[in-house]
Amino acid sequence: MTKLILLTIVFVIVALNAALFAVLTTRKPFVSMFVSQFERKFDASFISKFPNDQSVQNDIERRVVPNQVIYYWCAKSWERFEFRHYLSMYSVIRLLHPDVIYFLYDEYPKADKFEYNVWLDDLRQAYPFIYLEGTNGRRGCNGTSEDKLAAIVDELSKRGGFYVNEVTVLSSSLAPLLEDKQQMIEINCTTGHGFLMTQKGLAIPSVCKQSVSCPNSVQSSNYSSFYCVNVIERLYPKYIWELDSEFGRLARWAAYGERELMRPEANYQELAPNIAHYVWIGNGTMDYLWYLSVLSVLNVVKVDKVFIHGEAPHGKYWDRIAENEKVEVIYRYPVTYVFDQLIVGNSHQSDVWRVDIMTKYGGLYLDVDVIFVKPLSDDLRAYDAVMSIDFIGSYWIEDYPNVLQSGVMLGKRGSQFWVEFQKTMRKYKDDLWTWNACHMPYRVKEKYPRSLLIDKRLQVNCFCGKCHPTWWPGYKKRKVHHLNSNSLPNWRNDAYSYHFTGSVPIDLQEEGSMAGNSTSIFGEMARYIMDKSGLIYQD
């Protein structure tokens, strides 16, 4: 009996090992397990030239140069790892399928306060073969460009493989070079732009004598005859989404895995629900501005329903609204945590709720200090998600090219943008006022360009009584506003809504404060909404 049990155990172990071996030897290439559907097709086409296991074996055996890549990062040259550096490394990943990428550095790239330039960290989290080697005072980093290039040449000769400059984006596959060349030099010896390739242990002759540089992105419109292109200008994702050029197609392919223009698409078969949402935490008083806001969505936007999530307000203005059958309070207990992180303050609790509301219900979300002066067209409601650029000073933007204003949001429930926006709250920064509400949705837009339409006229931020249309030149500067420019010649048609952040203009503080004859645009807005609502001024 004991022998039978032992034999049975041995048989089971052998069977499990055989099954495990079969799984390991028949699994798909590693890259296909985590990349997008488009990239799966691309990787399959790359691998399809090897029809059987023998071809794969022959390909590996024919390689003269190791399939590994070196980046040589000097803090003296770069403080941040920017989007163009991300394009370079991603083009290497897509075209070379390297066994390893060595990122040699003297100081690791710094992240800004709002963590915009974290592109290297994003790549490291996505791909397991990026290896860091940090050394203080790395050779060549504090000397001349010739010193740095000499250090790179020595390092590459020891290891073998490729060196790719941090601003060099590969434009065609270098894989064939691994088979039929021992060495290749495509580099500018003055700038270091381009790439080097060599067999391990093979000395590299003077690169300056054999220098053949790849073109810069602004110099050429056809990269088919080159292996690479150098991105010498600072670059942001927004510049390439709709750039209809050879470089635009190359950059989109490197960043997103596709060459087509990346524009949000309208779907008129399903429009955003014609409902409006507010968040009100605590049962405080409805002020005159919020009263005007509700009147504006009822009588200008003409929504079917207004939902107030949280608790009912009180006061004389609420008493006028409370009996309206189109206004309904949806009780909701104040949230204090999101993804197990403590949330402090009503404003940040509202940040969490507004995204949850748009994910579940869709429609129009607006803050209580927003008034609409123009109906929402079907052309806007046909998009999955719509937001606008925010006016905030350069201190709050830092390295970001723009941030979004979540005080007005329009869209369809369950849309990709709202779902991904909500996911960003897994890292909630309660100490940074605009982090989750303004900065993170912009990062979602960068990651999924088609998921959100940015309409700069959806709202205008009027900070402390000065309006800053984001379509106007210099809008990021606080000193540029509607009082010293012609940025709002026709406020009724220039924008859909106006958002009054900071202190509220006197004309919007109390019904009688404008005395029915104010000449400011804010008094005109109040009178316009009251007129559209069929109400008489109470002086």
TrEMBL record:
UniProt xrefs under SUPFAM superfamilies: Nucleotide-diphospho-sugar transferases
Source species of the chain: Paralvinella palmiformis
PANTHER family, per the entry: ALPHA-1,4-N-ACETYLGLUCOSAMINYLTRANSFERASE, TRANSFERASE, PUTATIVE-RELATED
InterPro entries found in the cross-reference section: GlycoTrfase_DXD_sugar-bd_CS, Nucleotide-diphossugar_trans
Superkingdom per UniProt: Eukaryota
The name this protein goes by in its record: Alpha 1,4-glycosyltransferase domain-containing protein
One Pfam family hit: Gly_transf_sug
